[in-house]
Amino acid sequence: MSFNHACPDVPAPVIADSAVLLGPAWVGAGVVLAQGTVVRSHEATVSIDNHSAVLENSSVVGTATHPVAIGQRTVFGHRCQVIGARIGNLYEVGNGTILMPGAVLGDGCILGEGTSSARARSFPTRRSWSAGPATSSVPPPTPTASGLRACAITRSS
After folding, report:
1. What are the residue ranges spanned by the domains of the chain?
2. Can you tell me the distance from the alpha carbon of 97 to that of 131, in angstroms, rounded to the nearest whole number?
């Protein structure tokens, strides 16, 4: 497991005592892994980018054929299951959502509670999806990219 400390003013990850990390995973600055969360990374196949949160009793599983990449400032609700999916930046995933291997989710989307994805399903950028087999609805407001600055900050003395 590696923690991103590229910038001195960026907070360390917050990993609950009951969260479990199995295998080498990349966990960014300010990431929250809440109580009961399980991250299972076979051969370093899970990355969770800066300021994202995986809430209570969720599981994230990455394998060599289906790695998991979670973008910046992405929040997963309680009891979510992520197996081999790529999730963009500024994403909100509702409670009980299931993302199957090969799912690709664009930036700035919202998945409602209980949404499930088919294998290898793509979700376009800036859309809202509802429960059951994912169906599209009205696009959410344009997200601001203010929180997406790269962490390669140099300070002059």
Report:
1. 2-148
2. 8
Which tokens sit at 108?
A: 């700035």
Count CB atoms within 10 A of the CB of residue 129.
Answer: 23
Q: Which amino acid is at 8?
A: P
pTM of the predicted model over 0.70: yes
**What are the φ and ψ backbone dihedral angles of 147, each rounded to 5 degrees?**
-85, 5
pLDDT digits (tens, 9 = 90+) for 72-111: 999 999 999 999 999 999 999 999 999 999 999 989 988 8
Fold that domain 2-148 belongs to in CATH: UDP N-Acetylglucosamine Acyltransferase; domain 1 (2.160.10)
Residue tagged 């980018």 (tokens): 49
